[in-house]
Specification:
Order of helices and strands: HHH
Number of strands: 0
Distance between the termini: 100 Å
Number of helices: 3
Structural class: mainly alpha
Radius of gyration: 33 Å
Oligomer: single chain
Length: 76
């Protein structure tokens, strides 16, 4: 344990980046990249993928909806 060795390490650490900044970059960098990539993929999908077609409504459900609205159902 030499005094000069300790002083050299302390000087090297003082000149280096703050450890908190390194952690922030290592953790925050990928998170930011992930969010940006998600947004880009979302925008791409909105333009490229056609909107989903609605399932056909069954006659039973159609009848029930018309009864709720008070419209007389033909055939009854």
């Amino acid at each position: 344990m030499d005094g000069e060795d300790f002083a050299g390490k302390a000087a090297a650490e003082a000149k280096g980046l703050n450890p908190g900044l390194i952690v922030l970059l290592v953790v925050g960098g990928p998170v930011v990249v992930f969010l940006i990539a998600n947004y880009v993929l979302y925008v791409y999908a909105q333009k490229k993928i056609p909107p989903r077609k609605n399932k056909p409504v069954s006659k039973k459900k159609l009848k029930r909806e018309k009864l709720k609205q008070g419209v007389p159902v033909p055939g009854e």
